[in-house]
Amino acid sequence: MKNSILRLWPISIFILLGFTGCAVFQARTREENRKTPEMFNGFNCKDSTNSAQINWRQYFTDPYLTALIDTALGNNQELNILLHEIEIQKNEIRSRKGEYLPFVALTGGAGVEKEAHYTRNGAVDEQLEIQPGQPFPKPLGDFGLGLSASWELDVWKKLRNARKSAVLNYLAGIEGRNFMVTHLISEIAMTYYDLMALDNQLSIVQRNIDVQSNALQTIQQEKQAAKVSQLAVNRFQAQLLNTQNLQYEILQQITETENRLHFLMGKFPGPIKRNPQVLTEVSMDTILAGIPAQLLANRPDIRQAEKELAASRLDIEVAKANFYPSFALRAHTGFQAFNPTYLLNPESMALNFAGDLVAPLVNRNAIRANYLNANERQIQAAYAYEKTILNAYLEVVNELSQIRNYSESFDTKSREVDILTQSITISNNLFRSARADYMEVLLTQRESLESKMELVEIKLKQMQAKVHLYKALGGGWN
Asked: Partners of 356 in the beta sheet?
């Protein structure tokens, strides 16, 4: 009979495997599209030289800006939060690794038990003797000390795949950290250029206040000479007050921009060192965009999406393995006795060893749902990867276009500023010789102020496009 059972045992296992495995079906997955255009749309350049490979310290040459970035990389709270999130993912790898290694534990215990006298066990205990002439103790103690071990055999590589998935998610977290570094450097540079642009606009407004104050004095003298009416004096005075009011709005924006930099650096408010003249003196150096295929290697967010996609594929294998039986080994060895005196006696040694086979047979809907969800998440990850590539490509094209268009716009606006600056002197001279109306003087001053302010804004947009392009190409994290 025993031999028959031994012969049937392997057959039972194969039947169980076949029954549990036959219901596993192949759900749909998606292969991602990694193709990119040969060149950026509208820019016929196939040169693989790429500005993203330049370290940010060489890309941003302003020493005040590099000092701000250095401080932010060390103090920014959001970046530090992410760094600790990466450490959590690293610990997840350790946890996953431990799952497919044997678990060994030191066990120990103590207890006492007394059976009721008028029961079967109680009656049997009355007749038992530990040794001849020595009755069974009442109450019965139970003391134990030993080692226990359990080990799930990773036959289907479920546990190893889960660890590999955790590793990929950890690496994706590192790429996410790199992308945040790129974003932080970009945001610091953008805010710094915003601040310098506001400084330049404030300087322009203050110079115009001086010009308009002189014009007001002139018009007041003309009023005293009865050459103009009080209306002209009021119009010049109103324009001066309007310009003076404009400087307070700019000062408030400067305060908020400085505080934004302090927040990014994780510091309380203090002086921000800068040289506002640098903004207008910086030339737009040639920025090399390389070829679109380089985005896959340079952009941290693309590499992050790629690793998350690879992890989602492993998650499918982990979910699929849940359909199959799991095998586990259990063992225990140690000493057990009713009295601590006998605990270390060789005759008190106990040993057991067992193997478990567990397979889902009924109500497998939860396993199937997890498997289907893993497949759907893989499809989502594939689309997210493609979306990240497309977004990166379009960002580069947009920034290249902005650099080109704003460079031309800056040249055009510069000529306009020069003409209007000359027109102020001309209008004042014509007004003094009674060959021009005072409204022409006012209009010329207003147009000159507006054009100078717009010129600074265009220059700011140029610098912003330069920063954005560096980020879009994947620069800054290395």
From this structure: 328
Phi, then psi, of 306 in degrees rounded to 5: -65, -45
CATH 1.20.1600.10 region(s) of the chain? 16-100+154-320+364-472
Task: State the DSSP code for 50.
Answer: B
Distances (CA, A) of 456 to 63, 243, 400, 409: 21, 17, 20, 11
- Edge-to-edge, what's the strand order for the sheet holding 103-113? 103-113, 140-153, 326-337, 349-358
Interatomic CA distance for residues 102 and 150, integer angstroms = 6
Can you tell me the distance from the alpha carbon of 325 to that of 154, in angstroms, rounded to the nearest whole number?
10
Q: What is the helix (H) or strand (E) element at residue 135, kind and residue range?
A: strand 134-135
105-153+325-358 in CATH: which number? Answer: 2.20.200.10
The C-alpha atoms of residue 474 and residue 396 are separated, in whole angstroms, by 10
The 10s digit of each residue's pLDDT in 158-194 is 888 888 888 888 888 888 888 999 999 999 999 999 9
Alpha helix (H) ranges present in 148-268?
Answer: 158-224, 230-265
Q: What is the pLDDT of residues 332-388, one digit of tens each?
A: 888 888 778 777 788 878 888 887 777 777 667 888 888 989 999 999 999 999 999
Fold of domain 16-100+154-320+364-472: Outer membrane efflux proteins (OEP) (1.20.1600)
